[in-house]
Structure formats: structure tokens, C-alpha cells
Amino acid sequence: MGFIFVPERNFPRKYSARLEYITAQSAARRSMPELMKPNNYLINTQSIKEPPTSIGEKLKFLGPGFILSASIVGSGELIATTTLGAKAGFIAFWVIIVSCLVKVAVQLEFGKHTILSGETAMQAFNKLPGPRLGKAKWSVWLIFALILLKVIQLGGMIGSAAIVLNLLFSRVSVSTWVFTSALMAALLIYKGYYVVVEKFSLFMTLLFTMLTLAAVGFLTFTPYAISWSDIFSGLTFKLPSEVVGFAIGAFGITGVASDEIIAYNYWCIEKGYAAYTGPKEDTEQWKNRAQGWIRIMYLDAVVAMVIYTLVTAAFYLLGAAVLHNRGEIPEGNQLIETVAVIYTESLGPGVRTLYLVGAFFVLFSSLFASLAAWTRMYSDIFGQIGWIDFFNVSQRNKVIAILAWTFPTIWSFTFLFINLPVIMILSGGVVGSIMLFLIVYAAIQFRYNTPQSFKPGIFYEIALWVSIISILAVGVYGVASLF
Predict the structure, then answer these.
(1) CA angle, residues 204, 207, 211, in degrees to nearest 5
(2) How far apart are CA 306 and CA 56, in angstroms?
(3) What is the pLDDT of residues 327-358, one digit of tens each?
(4) CATH class of 8-481
């Protein structure tokens, strides 16, 4: 069953009665591959919209990538990337660049499938080939289990945000700030409004991006100035054995991570790309409209990629230039103070408070965006398993609200029990690297079940397979190097 969310701004709650199921029985649909066959659409009859053609109008429809950037430009960059830079120096810079670039084509395949089918991520996973356990396929159950393993990573995120707040307001304990952070995230997410998620994500991303890029620029006037030879030394595709574990964790958590690729599906749907395209029709009008919204989605993903690649590279270079040279590795509850050295050394000691405020926003942005995604993913998973009626709007919103309070509570207790934020966050990267194998498999299925009129050109085809091969190669290399 394909499902199209009506964009929130075009669909106020009071108009919910206008939603209706429309069942398509055309021969064109019956001839579509199983992965691309939408049986029912939940749509607003007024939701169809022609894609904009001017660059100014196109920019107004960007948004899903901002949410991804808020999630990406967060703990992965602030902690995992700088930790790898501190340990390895410039030599592993290539890992970060590859991580940011190679996953985008797979992300685009997920986005394109979303627009053409109107399916949520778990609906799509539930149509992949393979055995079924109850109502759900093996792939849905595997995502269920792997995402749960990332509870440790999210515990590290919420703990890191609490540590920052404790440094700013030391009279309040870290444990108190942990639950305060959980409460703030839950309050922002439990209503499930897409616009809130998008706008808040954009604000947090821009705030810390400007501070980080400024820090890189000001390194020029310090003893830690970065030379072109330093950068080139990090592009030799070498990786010392002692940093392999951190490199694999960083690869899994930086750039578009596996769970963020899945989450992109929900943000594309809630932004309205699928609803604007409308139900599948074997007409030139529908095909042109779909192509237009796919191009908007491509632009959204590329803009996001530019943002998070620049910031991720900046974080790594700061860690390699400052922390590696000083022999300081971020770890334990001192990680934020250690990373603060990056900014105080380049921008001066007076910037420490500004850094801590920015650090909280970047950590909280990951927490916030992850919670928004988890509530949607798990309500979708519960629907595929048969535990809830996912297409009942009231029931789905109720589950999202419950999960918005449940997950932060679990993350908080996880941090207080383990209390090792760096290891906790990097552990999520390892799980994410494993999950990328399933993401690649799904992307291949989507690609070769795409209707003929939407087959990609040779450049896209090459980019997709470079992405797939790179992900598989790094994953296999990482697993093999650990033994």
C-alpha cells in the first residue's frame, strides 16, 4: 500500500475529512514491478502541484535536506570526526570525504522511489524479496533490531548535550541536564509537526556551521595553520591499523548515515514531493510532473551534501590540526572541554562560552532530528508488523506522541548507566555501517524495478554503482581489518 502524507502547511487538522483513499486499477499499474506498485493512496484531492521551474521557486521547496543536515552536522562531526582526526592526524581525511560523497546516490534512489511510489520506507522494505515473519518481511525486522542497537549512540548524544549544559551552568548536575534535554526534545517532537522540525533544523545547522568554518579560517593565524601538503597527505587512501575501528565508526556515522537515508523518505513525503506528484497515471502529464519533483529532490539532496561535507571536513581538519598535534584525544566526560580547545586555539579563549552554546545546539540538533525520525520509523514498523493501523491518522499520531516521550527517557537512562559518550556514539557508527549493506540492497532493488520512463542516464548509473561499491568495499575492509 502506497501512502502519501499531505504536506502540513496545505493540510490543516480541521480539513482532515477531505482525505480519502483512491484505489487505482489501471492496466498500467497492474503491469508495474511489485516494488513500484502502489495499491492505495491517502491523498488530498487538492494536493497535486506542478513543479516550479525557476531557481528561486525551487529553493522554496527545499527542506528535507536541512533536517538531514541537522542530524548529520551533530554528534558525528563534533565527536566522531574530531576524535578520528585527533587519533589519526591528516592521514584519514579521505575516509571523511568518501563517507560524505559516496552515499548520496543511494539516498537519491530512496528519494526517487518515494516520489514514484508514495510508499513509506518500511512499506518499501516490506516488499523486498525474502522470507516473511508474520506480516513483516525479514528486512523490516532487521531494521527494527538494528535501530534499537543505536539506543547506545543516542544515549551518548543526549549525554554529550547534558555535559555541555553542565559546563555552562555547573550548579546543575549532568544527570539533571540529561533529563532536561530529553524533556525539551520530547516537547518539540511529540506533536509531530513537519514544519517545526524543518525550521528548527535549519536554524541549528546554520548557527554551528558559521562558527566551525570561522574556526578553520582563523587557524591560519595560529601555530596550527593547515597547509595544502597536510590536506594532500590525507588523500592518499592509507589507513593505519590502529585507527581502523574509529574510521569505520566515523564512516558509519558521518555523511548520510544508514538511518538518515531511511529517514529521508519520511521527510520527502511530509514535505509533499509525493503528494504533489499525485497518484500514478500512465500519462505524459504525470510523468513530467514526477520528473520535475524528482529534480527538486535532487537539488535538495545536493544542497544538503554541500553543507554537511564542508562542515564535516572542517571538523576533521580542526581535530587533526589542533588535537592531534597537542596529543589530546576526546574521551569521557572531558570530551567537550577537549574539543573546545579547537575553538579557543583558533578564535581565542573568549570564544569558549560561544563555543559551548554552539556545541549544545549542534548536539541537540542531532538528538532532535533523530527523535523526529525514530518516531516515524517505528510507527511505520509497528504498522507493517501489524501492531497498529498505520493508515489511521489518529492512531499513528498517538503512537508518534508516545514514542516521542519514550525514546528520550530510554536514551537518558542508557547514558547514565554507561557514561562513556565517545564510545557510545562511535558504537552507533559501527551499527550504521552494518545497516548500510541492507540499504544498498534496497537501493539496487529500487533501481531495477524503476519504470522504464524513469531509467537514469549513464552518469547517474555510474555514480550509483560507485556509491554502492564504495560502501560495500569500506564495510568489508573494515570488518576484515578488525580481525
Answers:
(1) 140
(2) 18
(3) 877 665 566 777 777 777 777 777 778 778 87
(4) mainly alpha
